[in-house]
Amino acid sequence: MSILPQIIFLLFFAATGYVLYKRVSFLKRNIQLGKAESRNDRSTERWQTMALVAFGQKKMFKRWIPALLHLLVYLGFIVINLEVAEFIIDGITGQHRIFAPLLGGAYTFAMNFFEFLAVGVLISCIIFLIRRNITKVPRLSMKELKGWPALDANLILVIEICLMMAILKMNAADQILASRGVEHYTQLGPLFFSSLLKPMLVGFSDSFLMFIERAAWWFHIVGILGFAIYVTYSKHLHIFLAFPNTWYSNLKPKGEMANMPEVTNEVNMMLGIPTEGNTEPPAEIGRFGAKDINDLSWVNIMNAYSCTECGRCTSECPANITGKKLSPRKVMMDVRDRAEEVGKSIDTGGKGLEDGKSLLGDYISQEEINACTSCNACVEACPVNIDPLSIILQMRRYIAMEESGSPAQWNAMFQNMETSFSPWKFSPSDRFNWAEKVKDEEMK
Amino acid sequence: MSNYKVPTMAEMAASGDNPEILFWVGCAGSFDERYKAVTQAFVKILNKVGVSFAVLGPEEACTGDPARRAGNEFLFQMQAVANIQVMNGYDVKKVVTACPHCFNTIKNEYPALGGNYEVIHHSQFLQTLINEGKIVMKGGGEFKGKKITFHDSCYLGRANNVYEAPREIIKALDVELVEMKRCRTKGLCCGAGGAQMFKEPEAGKKDINIERTEEALRTGASAIAVGCPFCLTMMSDGVKNKEKENEVKVFDLAELIAKDQGLS
């Protein structure tokens, strides 16, 4: 037998490996455009969070219909990959169904289970397409999804449907050939789902069925390799990044805003409080708050690449619900798009971060971030623990401290606090007046 | 009978005492006309139960929360460091406050600046007093058998995972607690957090407090219970906007207890 298919397969496999290596390096470098931040503490809790939230899909189940459909696709993805392992071994060795003779009846059982999942994925993807394009679930048809994001979502679903159809068709053709005693094909026990496709194929000749079987095999494996590359250009990256993203979750109380130690030093100096340790001003004074992606933490940028644009954040955002411009999902998409833009620019010898553009201003407007109530609904809603609020608050810091550009009423509030230690304009000496009324009252 | 007492930390220190808790009143608790009633109700309960407490009085300053959320980290830290100096000066160990924003800031954000205290929201504190039998409920008073809904504050709920204490208090009142669809982790903000209290909202199709008030009114509750001064303002404004202020009242949890106890 010719070893040409094996050579072609190996070439495909190696080429995919190379492209993936380049893509992963690109993404990793983009994420590292963000500032260093250590999140390696409390590792037991981090593994638990990853197991529950990413692996166990815990937060998906806040909405159980999409959660169940998504669970099928997720299980299909994980389990059918076991079959892909066989595809790869077959492809390299030139064998066909290498595990079938070894596993016997268990192999048939596994194939039936894979087929069940393939059908589950197929049905879920069709329902997802209906939700996006026909019933138009509000969070899946908002304006920030116009263009590429909507196409990306539909492409993913269509590709998954095609891949699953290929598996079923391949099995059907394969088993007809085996039942005809054609050499090289292994007769398995009955395969429930693919046998439903047999009537479509039984009329064809052996050679045509072999063509269909091989075509489906190649379509599936090349499709999967191609899809792996596609994913790195797509919101679908969440299938990998959900895991590190949840591992690096913020484990502190959601209400806590990160301290800015560089400010603490100056405040202590102003108030004449001796500071512990080094009181020298830092050699390089960074920007206060965030204007562009390099002012954010790398975790913020990883968050952005982990976002699959499901919009649960935006659909729970009080500002968005009441018609304000803010959409936490758009904030995440903007961070990712800006990181992509800067990354591509650097790689093509462009100006990178110095291209005259910035996240705040060119992608996200002040009006959007000013509308945030810091209520943490978006953070709570995210199935993979993305934190849009952290990014919003860092941008507010930039506007307030670097540009003094806060809304006039906030500037007035700042002034009140500076002069009378209250956000309202009351005399500090009146602060205790409320007690007079109680003190005059006889205790009941 | 003697009058209610509101001792300050300075008076306590002068007589060599150190109270068990510092009651952190907050700016709304000190200055907001409506919300002062909550402060007064809580102080009456503390007196009645005989809790050893004091307030900072004129020495208290804003925690800095709205400044920090609006992005002004310098101003926040100026406020915070000054407050911490005062509290550490009095050797404060335990802080109780009715404001979830003060609660969150002192509990979660002051430690990084040298202020380490046990911080308790008044809902948790009151729940403990009820559980310990120090407050014996008298059957809900004017609310007996009526429907009350509870509006979760973001800085108490999602920010700090306090969901049950306020509900336990309401249940102790012998009333019917009715939940809004968006409650607990899904609770909808009143619209005032993140320093929104201090500016007009951005352009949109509706104000957030109206959206939330409509949801609360749909429960058919005769009172909306809150545990936050900003929520109290926002929900009260919402009820007024809907011209329901004669039928539906907005109360803080401390006021509900004070009413039950005949203290108000």
UniProtKB/TrEMBL annotation, chain A:
Organism classification: Bacteria, Pseudomonadati, Bacteroidota, Cytophagia, Cytophagales
InterPro entries recorded: 4Fe4S_Fe-S-bd, 4Fe4S_Fe_S_CS, HdrC_iron-sulfur_subunit, Helical_ferredxn, NarG-like_sf
Regions crossing the membrane: 6-21, 67-89, 109-130, 151-168, 188-209, 216-233
4Fe-4S ferredoxin-type domain boundaries: 298-329, 362-392
Name of the featured protein: 4Fe-4S dicluster domain-containing protein
Keyword flag Chloroplast: no
UniProt entry keywords in alphabetical sequence: 4Fe-4S, Iron, Iron-sulfur, Membrane, Metal-binding, Oxidoreductase, Transmembrane, Transmembrane helix
UniProtKB/TrEMBL annotation, chain B:
Domain Cysteine-rich, first and last residues per copy: 22-107, 148-235
Alphabetized Pfam families for the sequence: CCG
Entry keywords, A to Z: 4Fe-4S, Iron, Iron-sulfur, Metal-binding, Oxidoreductase
Keyword Methyltransferase: no
UniProt cross-references to InterPro entries, sorted A to Z: Cys_rich_dom (IPR004017), HdrC_iron-sulfur_subunit (IPR051460)
Entry protein name: (Fe-S)-binding protein
